[in-house]
Task: inverse folding
């Protein structure tokens, strides 16, 4: 029997990519509402009532409102949620949807009624930092510096329109006031006790992402960092640790749910750079949502990916 899925926010960039990944599957029945009623609370509530899983591709406050709509269903409703916004990434009662993060993450996601999709920048940063902190290779109170560049599709419709228009910049850095919404989840799920310094940026390319974490070795070796990451992700389908490359290209994994991690630097110079490459709309958004959905409904984890 097909599992019924409602994508609330289907018309957005992430929602469209999730829909495209699911429409080809015979184990998924998509519940859709008339586009003219996509903001109608009654129509959305009816769709949630009929769904096994609702995937929220909405800004933060509308995502919270969507959960409240389901809470208003008789008996609280049986619908399970995957929230692609940042509204619930550190919220009590929500499971963080990063299956490769810990040994028990998959089981927790599979059993959860409320799963929060990781942010795109956060996926790269946490994938690099969390295993190193867990293994004691990095201290939890070490002040991390995170630099990143993303394709412009991560910024929503207004930024997409701007970057596709005439006169758009080739690249810009933003959120330097250190209040970016991904910072709380990076700290929480990497187990950092010191707030990282984060410098995100956007390039004039649609999708793709590189996240970089510079590290002073302070007696550690490049091999210590690489081996800790390789051990943590050994055997993973979507996350792999690779040798350093001469050039790191943010668009290299576009259209996939893959995440590549590498360690660059020199023991002699005492410096390293941890690097993550991913598609901000793949493993950083829609691909991750489908991976979590697969776990929640008992499908093959790579179905549709």
Result:
């Amino acid at each position: 029997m097909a599992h019924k899925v409602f994508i609330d926010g289907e018309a957005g960039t992430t929602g469209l990519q999730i829909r495209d990944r699911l429409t080809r599957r015979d184990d998924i029945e998509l519940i859709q509402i008339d586009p003219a009623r996509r903001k109608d609370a009654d129509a959305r509530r009816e769709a949630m009532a009929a769904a096994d899983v609702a995937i929220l591709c909405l800004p933060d406050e509308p995502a919270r409102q969507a959960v409240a709509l389901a809470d208003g269903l008789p008996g609280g409703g049986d619908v399970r949620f995957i929230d692609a916004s940042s509204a619930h990434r550190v919220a009590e009662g929500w499971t963080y949807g990063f299956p490769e993060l810990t040994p028990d993450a998959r089981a927790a996601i599979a059993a959860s009624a409320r799963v929060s999709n990781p942010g795109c920048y956060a996926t790269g940063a946490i994938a690099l930092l969390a295993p190193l902190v867990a293994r004691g290779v990095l201290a939890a109170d070490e002040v991390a510096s995170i630099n990143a560049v993303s394709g412009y599709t991560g910024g929503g419709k207004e930024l997409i329109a701007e970057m596709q228009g005439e006169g758009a910049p080739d690249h810009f850095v933003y959120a330097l006031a250190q209040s970016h919404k991904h910072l709380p989840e990076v700290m929480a799920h990497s187990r950092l006790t010191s707030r990282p310094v984060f410098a995100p940026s956007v390039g004039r390319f649609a999708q793709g992402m590189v996240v970089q974490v510079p590290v002073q070795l302070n007696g550690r070796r490049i091999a210590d960092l690489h081996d800790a990451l390789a051990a943590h992700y050994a055997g993973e389908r979507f996350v792999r640790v690779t040798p350093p490359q001469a050039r790191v290209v943010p668009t290299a994994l576009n259209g996939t749910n893959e995440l590549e991690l590498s360690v660059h630097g020199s023991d002699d110079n005492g410096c390293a750079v941890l690097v993550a490459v991913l598609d901000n709309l793949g493993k950083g958004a829609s691909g991750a949502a489908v991976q979590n959905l697969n776990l929640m409904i008992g499908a093959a984890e790579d179905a549709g990916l």
About this structure: The mean pLDDT is 94. The two ends are 21 Å apart (CA to CA). The chain has two domains: 3-117+285-297, 120-283. The longest helix spans residues 282-297.
